[in-house]
Amino acid sequence: MKLSDARVIIEGLIFAAETPISAGEISAIVELDVNVVESLVEEVRERYAEGALLIRNVGGGYQIVTKPELAPWIEKLGRPVISAPLTAASTETLAIIAYQQPVTKAEIEQVRGVRSDSAINNLLDRELICELGRKAGPGRPILYGVTEKFFEHFGLKSTDELPLKGISEWK
After folding, report:
1. CATH T-level topology, domain 88-161
2. How far apart are CA 118 and CA 121, in angstroms?
3. Global pTM?
C-alpha cells in the first residue's frame, strides 16, 4: 500500500470512529507499523492546521473535532457544543476522583467534608467516572475512577496531564 493511500484511509478511520481510535487499532486495520501510523497521523494533523478541524490525541486515541474557537457558530446550529456545566459539587468530586483514583465514596466525602451521593450519581450518569471494583476490607466499598469519556471531555491523554499532578497533600 502506498503511504498516500494509507494516509487517506487513516484519516477516514479517525473520522468514522465513534470514540477516539488508538494508533495500535489503526495499525492493525491498515497493517502498518505503529510508528508509521503515528507519523501519517501527524501529516494529516498538519494538513488540518489551516482549516476548521483538528485531530486531538485524547483518551489514548485520535479524534477529529472542530476547533474550539468555532463553538459560538456551531452552537447556532441548535446543537450545543458543551452540555450543561457541572455543578461545583460535581466538579470538586470529579477532581478528587481524578487525582486520587481508585477512591471510595467515604474517602471522597472525607476530603470534601460533605455527602457526595448526588455528585457521584451525576458523574456516573455523564459517564465521566465509573466503578473500578471494590476495596478489600469491611463493607467492600465501591472504588471509583475516571473514564475514557473524562479524557475526551477535558482533552487529556492521561491523568499525568492533570494540572499540579504532583500534589501530594491530598493523600
Report:
1. Arc Repressor Mutant, subunit A (1.10.10)
2. 5
3. 0.56
